Amino acid sequence: MRHSLTGNILTTDGWVSGRLETDQGRITQIIGNPVDPLHNDDPYILPGFIDLHVHGGGGADVMDGGEAVETMTRLHARYGTTSLLATTMTAPHDELVKILTGLGQAAQARAGGCARMLGVHLDGPYINPHKLGAQPDATALAILDEVLQYLALAPIRVVTLAPEMYGHVAIIQALAARNIRVQLGHTLGSYDDAVNAMKHGACGFTHLFNAMSPLHHRDPGMVGAALAHAAYAEIIPDLKHVHPGAIRAAMRAIPRLYVVTDSTAAAGMPDGEYHLGSQKVTKCLGGVRLADGTLAGSTLTMDQALRNLVSLGLPIADVSNRLSRYAADYLGIHDRGRIARDAWADLVVFDRELQLTETYIEGESLVEYA
């Protein structure tokens, strides 16, 4: 199917005013001239959003298994997410085997009107039991045979773990050798633990600032290691998880800080009770919390993340990179997250008030599935 879009196009070489053409799911042509989009009233055409940390949406939770994927990916596609990683929660071994088996099957196809599931983010169980955040208390020490069993069941692209736990540095090495991105999170590890983990192949930080040892000038912790050494890290810009000043500090320190939603089943749903893995959560006042008040993921969508960051004074082009290109680069994907000839036609169109008006996933317009 062919499509032609006109407006301010954010290409890999900068803004162009002109026309973009697609065919057979790919971008075939970009015709136009360099432009400053502030000098016209045309819409913005950006790369589709890539979310590497998604627990659910539309009432569905990843831990419900493969059947939840279509609901979740359809919901997030409505808000501009064109591809994502289905993100698990800490759970007992037998439950994870069942869930990963279903996710492995779900990753093999994409229903019309749904975001592409690029694979799985294994968020737990290899975390510190004293830094659970909203994770269930079912943590485990990583054992290579078990990890390899999980890798055989589903296309796991990212693993979050706590590097200070016994044996985990060796697991980091084993995963990095298999081109799995290892992130440090839900951890009480020290600055030195983080630096050592990065020397052995860890390359990211999960929802930076949240559920990790904080920065102190005499004890820099995980946050200090990220700010000092990381090229990549996740951030949740719902303006609840992280103060805008901390977001700005991280953006100055970490070159490819990228946006995730950490969204839950409550995303796109009315206030009320939902579940996050095995735990009940409540959506109220735009947030999601456990009964004790702990933030439990979010209801953030990527289009709102765009508006939030632009409201902090960041240029749209910079924000777009953090919503799309950096996540693709992190996974080593070079034909998504950017507008360039022969890349997948994953595109979002925004009006001048930054309201999403169109989404294309692999060349398919969501209007066709409305």
Word description of this protein:
- The protein has one domain (48-336): TIM Barrel (Alpha-Beta Barrel).
- Helix content is 27%, strand content 28%.
- It has helices at 67-77, 93-106, 144-153, 168-177, 191-199, 221-229, 244-253, 302-311, 316-331, and strands at 3-11, 14-23, 26-34, 44-47, 49-54, 56-57, 60-61, 81-87, 116-123, 156-161, 181-184, 204-205, 232-235, 256-259, 272-276, 279-284, 287-289, 347-350, 356-361, 364-365.
- The strands form 5 sheets. The protein has a 7-stranded mixed sheet, with helices on one face. A 6-stranded parallel sheet has the order 5-8-9-10-11-12.
- 53% of the residues are buried.
- The model has no long low-confidence stretch (mean pLDDT 96).
Quickly list its features:
370 residues; 9 helices; TIM Barrel; alpha/beta; 28% strand; 20 strands; globular; 27% helix; six-stranded parallel beta sheet
Quickly describe the structure.
With 370 residues, this protein is α/β, with parallel strands linked by helices.
What's the order of the H and E elements? EEEEEEEHEHEHEHEHEHEHEEEEHHEEE
Q: What's the end-to-end separation, in Å?
A: 17 Å
Radius of gyration: 20 Å
Summing up helix and strand content along with how strands pair, one would put the structural category as: alpha/beta
How many beta-strand runs? 20
The CATH H-level homologous superfamily: Metal-dependent hydrolases
Q: Helical region count?
A: 9
The percent range for helix content is 25-40%
Question: How many separate structural domains?
Answer: 1
Strand order within the widest beta sheet: 3-2-1-4-18-19-20
The average pLDDT score comes to: 96
Ranges where pLDDT stays below 50 over 5 or more residues in a row are none
